[in-house]
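Good morning N.,

You mentioned wanting to compare the apo and holo forms, so I went ahead and generated the holo version with zinc ion. This is what I fed in:
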Amino acid sequence: MLTSDARARALAAEPTGPAPGLRALRGGADGHGGGHADDDAPAAGPGAEFQAIVRRQLELLGEDPAREGLLRTPERVAKSLAWLTGGAAVDARSVVGDALFAEVHESMVMVRDIELYSLCEHHMLPFFGKAHIAYIPDGKIVGLSKLPRIVDVFARRLQVQERLTEQIADALGTILRPHGVGVVIEAQHLCMMMRGVEKQNSRTITSALRGTFRSDPKTREEFLSLARGQSGCR
Ligand code: ZN
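and this is what came out, ligand included:
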């Protein structure tokens, strides 16, 4: 659990933006090809430099980038990574839009088991799991479907789970100005499962608490026990 304000600020710092070449691919990226007529020719247009690097990466891995199965791999990887890191260019406030509503309700609102897929910035391998988000409104509530979209904004970039958790909490705090916010993420990291320590069943749990979720023990306990409940992440 992260409780120091200084650490929270450091964790919330935005990562450096992407190179323009890959950014140009974002928006239309579907991760499933597309294609140009001559796969052997150096790629032209958006992502060309990135594709050339992936092709070189394949060579360095001892592969033949000209063999059939790999011909369009550089293009697919470029599009896929553009999509998977596209959240870095999105402002969380823009996905909420006008889905903020005046409401006198001042009890805890919680959405559990929000599916989460992100990329670990140390290995560029996926980590995935569930986010549980709660807040106590102070005059404003947000459309519930917006919470998963806020998760996606911060998950779709090179991340560490700790910073992801803090960024979601901070975004909700800024957008909603609630009495308090709590975020718990439980995730499995392929960099741990497929390599290194090869611990297939370990889960990493992080939490970020703001406002009354931090200052009021009863609120914190209510939230954490709800977050610990029937999780789908097993
Ligand atoms: Zn990793």
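The chain has a mean pLDDT of 84.

Happy to go through it together on a call whenever suits you.

Best,
F.
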